[in-house]
Write a structure and sequence with these properties.
There is one protein chain. By secondary structure, the chain is an alpha+beta fold. It contains 9 helices and 11 strands. The chain has a 4-stranded antiparallel β-sheet with strand order 1-8-3-6. The longest helix has 27 residues.
Length: about 240
Amino acid sequence: MDAQSIKVACSSCNLRELCLPMGLNPDELDKLDRVISARRRIKRGTALFNTGDKFTSLYAVRSGFFKTCVTTADGRDQVTGFQMTGEIIGLDGIVSDRHSCDAVALEDAEVCVMPFDQVEELSREFTTLQHHVHKIMSREIVRDHSVMLLLGSMRAEERLAAFLLNLVQRLHARGFSQSELILRMTREEIGSYLGMKLETVSRTFSKFVEEGIIEVKQRYVHIKDTDGLRRIVNPQACD
């Protein structure tokens, strides 16, 4: 759990294009390397940070999968997002200097620690980095809006289809298959995120299997008909 003072060297990291801006010159990259000088390993089921913890750093997911969640007034865990390799966690803490959610590893994971005060300082020096930080924040806002739309206006089938399409698209950007994925989260966690009961999630998965859209073996999902999923989400666009 403790931060390890291991040199990460962003300049040679194969995730650089996903979580760091391109176009930094060697001197700028060297300064960034010095800022992101530690990694943390997080065991499955362990929290990277909890609600109320003091905000000090952003975290770039180097390997593994996380969920962010909040505890509702009646004591239930509400999943607010899933984060994967190459994505940034911790932006929730910027507003009040305290984290407003828990970030829990869904499998053994490793993150690069990015101390926020130093990132801010460098951002003022390199406009490329500042622009990238703003871009990451904007992407989170857009994602939040998409989830609100998902929960506010979509039927169960549309919600699950949109979720699977989004997940496979993000994984494909990281070099994985366009049609096959291993779900790192449980059906219950998917239901919490999508505002669906566990039975509804299971029933909808079964419906997709019966219709020949997907094949499921435990957590392995093979999308056999991507257009079929797209038609469920947006029938007009596929006509």
